[in-house]
Design goal:
Elements: E1 12-13, E2 18-19, H1 40-81, E3 93-98, E4 104-107, E5 117-124, E6 130-132
Antiparallel strand pairs: 1-2, 3-4, 3-5, 5-6
């Protein structure tokens, strides 16, 4: 069995006995277009920057929510440890004051109507949590 040897620049498949240069996924001649690998570094850097921005934004949102929650906790702790001799009504406005001896108390008297050291105005929401006005 004699197989005709083709020149090196001819793409011939001996198993199928066909010329298959057009079927190859790579260049088969000197005149073929240059195969270049895509620049994935730029794409990766862009994606990393987007991810970093998204993570930073989410972190800042969570940090702000956490700080708000801690502040709400501190206000509630301060109000519940203050002195008052009445049962607060939901959605009613109350004012927190501090005496000269450092003791805090809750009152319905508005800051404009007295000379107490005002710490803030609050109302009790339906969840029994004090919210600052």
């Amino acid at each position: 069995m004699s197989v005709d040897k083709k020149p090196d620049n001819v793409v011939f498949d001996v198993e199928t006995q066909k010329y298959d240069a057009a079927l190859k996924p790579y260049a088969t001649s000197l005149g073929a277009p240059v195969i270049t690998t895509p620049d994935t570094i730029t794409w990766k850097n862009r994606s990393i920057n987007k991810l970093n921005h998204k993570v930073e934004t989410k972190y800042l949102e969570l940090k702000a929510a956490y700080e708000k929650m801690i502040q709400e906790f501190e206000y509630n702790k301060l109000i519940f440890s203050s002195k008052f001799t009445f049962e607060p009504i939901v959605n009613q406005l109350y004012h927190l004051y501090k005496r000269d001896n450092g003791e805090t108390f809750l009152s319905i008297i508005a800051p404009e109507q007295c000379n107490f050291n005002n710490l803030g105005s609050f109302y009790l929401n339906a969840d029994q949590i004090w919210e600052k006005i």
